[in-house]
Amino acid sequence: MLLANLPSTALAEPRQLRFVTGKRKKSWNKNCLAVGLSSGFMEPLESTSIHLIQSTIMRFLSLFPRRDNFDIEMNRFNNDVDREFRTVRDFLILHYKATQRDDSELWNYCRNMEIPDSLQEKLDLYQSGSWLERDKQELFGVDSWLAVLNGQHVRAESYSPLVDSLPKDKLESILRETREVIAQCATAMPSHEDFIRKHCADPTLHQ
Ligand SMILES: Cc1cc2nc3c(=O)[nH]c(=O)nc-3n(C[C@H](O)[C@H](O)[C@H](O)COP(=O)(O)OP(=O)(O)OC[C@H]3O[C@@H](n4cnc5c(N)ncnc54)[C@H](O)[C@@H]3O)c2cc1C
Known about the structure:
This protein is mainly alpha-helical. The protein has two domains: 19-165, no CATH class; 166-207. 49% of the residues lie in helices and 4% in strands. The protein is built from seven helices and four strands. Helix 1 (49-62) packs antiparallel against helix 2. The longest helix is centred in the middle third of the chain and has 27 residues, at 71-97. It is globular, with a radius of gyration of 22 Å. Bound molecules: flavin-adenine dinucleotide (FAD).
């Protein structure tokens, strides 16, 4: 499929990378700390590995033990790592679950697959009243969740009642300003094609 859609002949043979997804039950066990791929891997879609390396190091530093018995710090660390992996996992699964594609076995499977309770709860809350909560240790913010939900046509059935506490003209001006800022940013940015042509064009394609 990849080779069939290239605009020119391939520069090299494609290299398939295979990986097993998952994480260690304990990233920190006794005097051993697993960081990076040694602690786990989910998948490359949202490129989270380097962030997880960094957050593991920061978390370890903030819980760096002083005493010989450091079970309390270790347990807290492992629980927090679990939570962070879980939120990333849920965000990744959403990309697949929310698909509307029905043109292949893969996408049909994804659309109908079981999802973790934590993700189902997040989806239910969003669809019921636009609620999007962010765990304070979570990598992906509300904007990221909204982009994937809206981008894949998962719509909320209602909006937050808090919105009704704002006067209508105030609400309209906030929305207008948001729209203007987005439009100005989009206008100021080069198109994807222009950017590639200027910064990283493949000379063999434009002769
Ligand atoms: C093509 C590609 C693109 C990527 N893009 C992104 C991205 O955009 N964003 C992102 O966050 N992540 C990205 N990743 C993932 C990220 O780069 C890796 O998850 C990360 O570098 C892993 O770091 P690590 O230190 O855990 O493992 P590695 O970087 O694999 O380091 C492990 C080291 O251990 C050495 N080693 C292995 N076995 C032994 C042994 N028995 N004895 C001694 N040494 C050993 C290896 O030689 C290696 O130097 C990408 C990965 C790939 C392959």
